[in-house]
Amino acid sequence: MVSDVSLPRDLAGRTVVVIGASSGIGLATARQVRRHGGRVVMAGRDRQRLDRAAAEVGAERTATVDAADPGALRRFFADLPGPVDHVVSTAGAPWYMPLAEMDVDEARAVFGQRLALTLGVAKYGAAVVRDAGTLVFVGGTGGRRPAVGGAVTSALTAALPALTAALALELAPVRVNLVAPGFVDTPLSASLLGDRLEERREQLRASLPIRRVVGPDDVAALAVHLMCNEAVTGATYDIDGGQQLVPP
Where is the signal peptide, in residue numbers (predicted)? Predict the structure, then answer.
């Protein structure tokens, strides 16, 4: 017997919360949600940047919130005027530090903060998401290949898929998925690479199977797909243009 499966073609009438929405992948996701007919609640730490982004996108609501603060996250979700359909969290950044130069207390704080952020969005976000709605987290593939300075990022890269799968079981029927980008051409990448940014772009254009650099819209499109496809949960989706297939 063939089941009659109808996938939503857009997000018309849906409300999507985007955390980390003032730039990069978060902003691109907010734009695409609006393009697909959805309503957007945009949250971020920098009020000025958030206001500019919200005015451009046409956000329904904005909130200044530090996602690393569990109390602030709890208040943010509690203050929403009603249930939402999806939550996308792009908060968090990679952290690189050679062991010889590492402050172990700082490393513990970075690792614990990233896990606590994910758990906080899951705990407080799932409480306001409608059944079959989605929590989409954005992680990364940066720690898949061992490298000097990448111990903490490697551990997080390994931990987040396992955490996502466990949350998908515990929070069902709310769906939980993880998007794992490689290098993405964002303002964060620019700030990390500085004057080496263009060199990195050229290297990727020459070496990646897709022959171009992955942009925030690529990642946002995957996030939108995961919101719409109600058969997907507990999964990690790499989006790196084939970066892991290329020898270092």
Answer: none
